[in-house]
Structure formats: structure tokens, C-alpha cells
Amino acid sequence: MINELLTIKPRDYKSDIKPIWCTGCGHFSVLNAITKAAAACGLAKDDTVLVSGIGCSSRLPAYIDSYGFHGVHGRGLAVAQGLKVARPDLTVIAIGGDGDGFFIGGNHFMHACRRNVNITYIAMDNEVYGMTKGQASPTSPRDWTGSKLTPHGPGARPFKPAAMALASGAPWIARGYSGNSNQIARLLAEALAFPGFSFLHVLSQCITFCPQQTDWKAIVTDFEQEPLSRADEAAALLLSEDGFKTGLLYYEPRSIWPSEAAPTENAKLVLDDLASAYQR
Ligand code: SF4
Ligand code: MG
């Protein structure tokens, strides 16, 4: 088993299913980063689960050769947390897009941040509902006129995912960019090692409905200082920055819920109920 882990390559984590994303979609870069981080961390496929909601990015679990759950819109985090509580021995990664995670699943996002279950959440943000053909999402710029449904722009201020995560209690917050897959892989490896809820916000371009996002490569910058470890300092940064700083932004470990030791009594009860329901 140890020899197997030492020789496993990123490509070994790819499943036989070919992604159906558009050519040039940023999500390919995130997929590659996940396989790189998985190889670097020696993740055991049988002990790793990717959970997603609905949307282009939420197709990702099918493309990884591990366990996966392609769930309901905006509910990936609920499933991921429940799974981790019941099976603390597993590595659980939740995945989704900006519409899935910040609008339909926004409530779950806030409460996952404050609950601090030991999982990693990768939000692949392209500021648009891609799968349903390009409607404005919670992170679309207020003057974005690319959708026929909002020809004068959505009008509302865009949601700030990192600031929201901080305000809700997330102890680890980072941002990556699909133009730099190695950086995403490094951040993800750190996120997986972090004991608690780690939120990895990835700017992942939608080349089909937002071709202007190719300009992001000229805008993103590296957050070159040590991650902030005080919430008030992080709030000042995250409320004032342009949303294009990448790197580990905030790091403040705190007690996770529930404790790592074993499934909680509650989880055991739930599992017992499920087991007896299936026997009926
Ligand atoms: Fe990617 Fe956009 Fe195509 Fe969806 S519609 S696969 S997000 S490029
Ligand atoms: Mg989107």
C-alpha cells in the first residue's frame, strides 16, 4: 500500500470519463490541480470522496477516480459535512460553482464556515451560471451586460465570497486562479492538511459566456505576505481588495466540530436508523 502511494501519479486519479466542458474552460485547470494535490498528499482513492451540487463545475467528481456524490443544487456542503461527521476517517472535498454555492446554497455556505467540520470546499467561481446558458450569478459584476435576461447588468453589488467566509467563521481562506494550476494544487494540498473547514475560492474562467475573463491573467496578483491570522485585519483586507489577490489569505485554526476521534453518538444514531430503514 505504501509503495503504491509513493508511485501514484496525478494522472492516476483521473477517471475514464472525459470532461464535457468547453475547450478553454477554467475548470480543466482545477481538475488537474486536484489530481496533482491528491498525488502530492498520497490520497487513497478508497478513502477520498468528492461531493458536488449542480452546474458545470459540479460535474467534476465524475472525472476523478475516487468516490463521488453529484447531488442537488446548492446542497453539496450539507452532504459533505454529514459524510464527514459519520465517517471522520475519510477525506471529504466539496465542490461547486458560484451560483450553486453562493446563491442557491448560500445558507449552507455560511453555516459550514461557522460549524468548522474538517472538510475542504472548492468554489469554482466564474461569475455566471454556465450550465444554464449564461445568466448573472451572485458574483457577476453589477454592470455585466452579457446576459439577455439582464441586458442592463444585474444591478446588485457582487457577493464577496472570501469576506463572507470570514464573517461566517471560516478559519482557512485562500484564493486561486485557473490560469495557475500549480498554485491551486499547492493551496489545495495545504487545505487538505489544515485541521478544519478550509475554503478555497478559485477564479475559474467561463470562456463561453464570459470571454472577457481571459483578461483576469493581467489582473490577478499574488498575496505575498504571510496569511493574516486576525479576523479584524483580514476583514479590512477582504472588504477592500479587488477580489483578485491569490494565495493563502487567512489562517486561524480553532476547534473543529465534532471532535476527530470517532463518529459522534448522533451520527451513530443516524447510521443505525438508516441501516434499519434499509432492512425494512
Ligand atoms: Fe466551462 Fe462556461 Fe463551458 Fe460551463 S459553459 S463548461 S463554465 S466554459
Ligand atoms: Mg458559475
Strand line-up in the sheet with most strands: 2-1-3-4-8-7-10-9
Share in helix: 25-40%
Bound molecules: iron/sulfur cluster, magnesium ion
Name the assembly state. single chain
Distance between the termini: 38 Å
Count of DSSP E strands?
10
Mean pLDDT: 94
| Model regions low in confidence, pLDDT < 50 over at least 5 residues | none
The helix/strand order is: HHEEHEHHEEEHEHEHEHEH
Strand content: 15-25%
**Rg value:** 18 Å
Number of helices: 10
Task: Output the structural class.
Answer: alpha/beta
- 3D shape: globular
Major β-sheet annotation: 8 strands, mixed
In short:
This protein has 280 residues and is an alpha/beta fold. 35% of the residues lie in helices and 17% in strands. The strands form 2 sheets. An 8-stranded mixed sheet has the order 2-1-3-4-8-7-10-9, with helices on both faces. Strands 5-6 form a two-stranded antiparallel sheet.
Structure description:
It is built from ten helices and ten strands. An eight-stranded mixed beta sheet has the order 2-1-3-4-8-7-10-9, with helices on both faces. The chain has a two-stranded antiparallel sheet with strand order 5-6. By secondary structure, the chain is α/β, with parallel strands linked by helices. The longest helix is centred in the first third of the chain and has 15 residues, at about 25-40. Iron/sulfur cluster binds next to loops.
Write the layout of secondary structure elements.
Layout: H1 2-7, H2 27-41, E1 48-52, E2 67-70, H3 76-86, E3 91-97, H4 98-104, H5 106-115, E4 120-125, E5 128-129, E6 135-136, H6 161-168, E7 172-177, H7 181-193, E8 198-203, H8 216-219, E9 221-222, H9 231-240, E10 245-251, H10 265-279
Parallel strand pairs: 1-2, 1-3, 3-4, 4-8, 7-8, 9-10
Antiparallel strand pairs: 5-6, 7-10
Bound molecules: iron/sulfur cluster and magnesium ion.
